[in-house]
Amino acid sequence: MSAAFSESRNQSDKRSTSRPRTPRPTTPLRPSSHSSFRESARSSGEQDAPFPLNAFEPAFAELADSIADLEANLMHFQLMHESLARFGESFAGFLYGLNMNAFCVDFPEGPIPESFRHPREHGTQSGPKSRDARGTEESESEATFMTTDISFVENPVSQKSSKFTTPEAKAPQRILQRLNMPLTRHMFAAAQRAAVPTMGLGLRRMATVSSSALDQKVKQNNWEEGNFINYKKMAENLAIVRGRLNNRPLTYAEKILYSHLDDPHGQEIERGVSYLKLRPDRVACQDATAQMAILQFMSAGMPSVANPTTVHCDHLIEAQVGGAKDLERAIGINKEVYDFLASACAKYNIGFWKPGSGIIHQILLENYAFPGGLLIGTDSHTPNAGGLGMCAIGVGGADAVDVMANLPWELKAPKVIGVKLTGQMSGWTSPKDIILKVAGILTVKGGTGAIVEYHGPGVDQISATGMGTICNMGAEIGATTSLFPFNDRMYDYLKATKRQAIGDFSRAYAKELREDEGAEYDQLIEINLSELEPHINGPFTPDLATPISKFSQAVKENNWPSELKVGLIGSCTNSSYEDMSRAASIARDALDHGIKSKAIFTVTPGSEQIRATIERDGQLQTFEEFGGVVLANACGPCIGQWDRKDVKKGDANSIISSYNRNFTGRNDGNPATHSFVTSPDLVVAMTIAGSLHFNPLTDKLKDKDGNEFMLSPPSGDGLPALGYDPGQDTYQAPPQERASLAVKVSPTSDRLQLLEPFAPWDGKDVLDIPILIKCQGKTTTDHISMAGPWLKYRGHLDNISNNMLIGAINEENGQSNKVRNIVSGGYDAVPAVARDYKKNGIKWVVIGDWNYGEGSSREHAALEPRHLGGLAIITRSFARIHETNLKKQGMLPLTFSNPADYDLIKPDDKVDVLCTELAVGKPLTMRVHPKNGEAFEVKLSHTFNEPQLEWFKNGSALNTMAKSQK
Ligand code: SF4
């Protein structure tokens, strides 16, 4: 196992296996008596005396001349990347040869002899050139940087350090130090890139991609100018990390993440342990979460977003009677929110997708996703873009703001779960059944902290949109994201959506757009698609997976309501052209037999493009003829935006959808609704029968004349033969001239409020302040900032702060939302007491137990205490994301250095927080003044680093950013 990767490799169950790993040599630097490079590699186990490097000094000097000369050409990119790479290869081969006992002859003066060049199939030539003064100066300055950038360890195999530990990483620096020669980052990277393929020395060759092939300027999408896909930079980053990881074969997920590292040289990397600092390519926000994200971004004082960003209006449209009318009504109700988002997007250079354009994830797949890219989105089903090989991760608004403001984004290095697909799907089995099966295997928690990576021969038959479906619903198993490797199906989809140039560029980088041979997964699941049955999952949880052959029995055994009331297809999960075509083929089959949908049937197209295309191609008319209601291109019933009238709240009933989530009450707010999820194919089939007992694979229906017939298996085109019809133009591009634009926020709005910058720290200790609440037991982000009806106020910090900590239990009385006010002496709601303290200029603290702030990454849970005058949250421990969120808002998240001190604190104590002691790595003191008794001190620990301390001092991370803009 790699030194830097010491995670345990779980073998989960009998379906799980792990692949053997390719052994790699770790031979120390020493001489050899062998004349052949390859021979010496084979005998590299011997131990000899240290190698006398000065014997090769003339040759090193020659190489140094050449290196310095190449450095002088750094401005000429083509020359640099081709020539330097060639020198890098030769030099690295030379270094590697030393390392592998390759040399036994005197090194001659003059050009590097053929025998010392790197033993690759594609031989390279390099020749000496004269040194150039400018090149030398540049080299020296960079050499200084490198000296601090690299640390050596004597036993790389036993080190967990992420610093350079590999022989090829150490050798260039060590030799050049001896020779007093400069080594630049560029040269080092080139040498490492070239050294990487040699590590297997014939055992295994790592693919490298021609530098010039990656020099193209290919736009990320057809909507934005100036945003390009940077495979070249990704390849360079990846080469650096490969060198550091002993050339261990990488999963595709790792390749994407490591190629987006902010600091590939210095980043600690340990799967499941380290926190990676990443540079995503894009940000996407849906309308409900975009509000606070943009409000926060505005506080940073930046003129525009630093990274490409889009906002999508899809969550606020309620399904009532049908697409056009519902959309019109939603535009009226949500006008102030839409006006705000549209104006802010124009002002800050953000692409704005108007209401009616479609669901965020379908729009991203159709327009923005590209293989190998890294996207963060403020919605949990962002992973949908994995259908185009993009690493797309759902995050909270604060994380999105970081990337919009050009801060690196932090992610715990995920574990990687492999799902190997073999065989071929046929008949009624569809891509949805793959994820329904996986959800059954892994359960709703099984993917937590992991990326699910699909691979194997079975992936090539799945359409890009089908892969999107599978990745989308990976959120239901808690996965960080899900991914498919780049393949021809993705190319076809890119071409069909007018992005063939991206497809061609991806082909040039294709070797890095999939897993390496021998890549190791933390867990491996194998699914034979030839044997995969259609599945139905639910009710109430998406991981209760039942194959169709056993479903009728399960309905009986569990006493689920067998009459099917409503079938719903669409949502971001299953609304592709392929989904709609297959579903329409079943509906047409029924119509051809003279029957229609028995249950209520609804369709939500994923985008305006899909709606317009299926309208043109006839599927939409088929659905309407079948009895269906076509809803707006939006989330609708999937997020509970459904004015359902066919059952009363509390009545037990069953519905089935092609959506992804089916938790209690999610679709219609009725906890008695049994919601099942399945493929659109089965939704339509069961809607025809109107019964959960129907199995279209085995059961017959009756036609209009009472004759029995069986539905034909679904069929349909993956891509529209006539191309996609874009439909109405629903995109608002940001204008070129934005400085004079104003963001529209009504001062009387109860849904939107501009954020005022928080006050900076006054540089003093904070004395004699109350404990607002001492929380007992679990305090999650739901306890700190509840959802439900409060969602409406997500864009209004003052209004939503009225839910602050109303779910937390007060240790003093065992009740929620009832705390004592030290000013009035009476009891009141937590937010009311906090407001009273704020009004009287009194800061306050909260005392919490273990893992305070677990749950979601909701930034409101950190914004609200800051807004209502809190100074510190003091706990036994924090959920990491919440702790970071608190720091970002200028709060002090502190932990008892001795967790037992939690028990010493009483809710009516007062405390002094000695903020002036705050320093990196040092605890600070809290003086406790019990109501009756002697004052005592406890030590409080923290995890602030230097930049984060600036956040506290300046009042918030955004203030710090704003300050840096001045
Ligand atoms: S359709 Fe459903 S799952 Fe998809 S983004 Fe909308 S609410 Fe979320």
Assign the structural class, choosing from mainly alpha, mainly beta, alpha/beta, alpha+beta, or little secondary structure.
Answer: alpha/beta
CATH architecture of one domain: Alpha-Beta Barrel
| End-to-end distance | 48 Å
Number of alpha- plus pi-helical segments: 29
- Secondary structure tally: strands: 32
Which kinds of small molecule does this entry bind, naming each only once?
iron/sulfur cluster
GO cellular component, one term: DASH complex
Organism: Cephalotrichum gorgonifer
Enzyme class: lyase
Catalytic activity: citrate = D-threo-isocitrate
What can be said about this structure in brief?
This protein is 32% helix and 14% strand.
Question: What does the model show?
Answer:
It is a single chain. The chain has 966 residues and is of the alpha/beta class. Among the domains are: 37-203, no CATH class; 535-709, Aconitase, domain 3, CATH 3.30.499.10; 766-965, Aconitase, domain 4 (Alpha-Beta Barrel). It is 32% helix and 14% strand. The chain contains 29 helices and 32 strands. The strands form nine sheets. It has a seven-stranded mixed β-barrel with strand order 22-27-28-29-32-31-30. Strands 6-5-2-3-4-21 form a six-stranded mixed beta sheet, sandwiched between helices. Strand 14, helix 19 and strand 15 (600-604) form a beta-alpha-beta unit. Helix 2 crosses helix 4, helix 16 (488-496) runs antiparallel to helix 17 (500-508) and helix 19 runs parallel beside helix 22 (680-689). It starts with 36 loop residues before the first helix and ends with a helix. The model is unreliable at 1-207 (pLDDT under 50). Iron/sulfur cluster binds at residues 314, 359-361, 379, 381, 571-572, 635, 638-639, 660. It is an enzyme of class 4 (lyase). Its cofactor is [4Fe-4S] cluster. Keywords: Iron, Iron-sulfur, Lyase, Metal-binding, Mitochondrion, Transit peptide, Tricarboxylic acid cycle. It catalyses: citrate = D-threo-isocitrate.
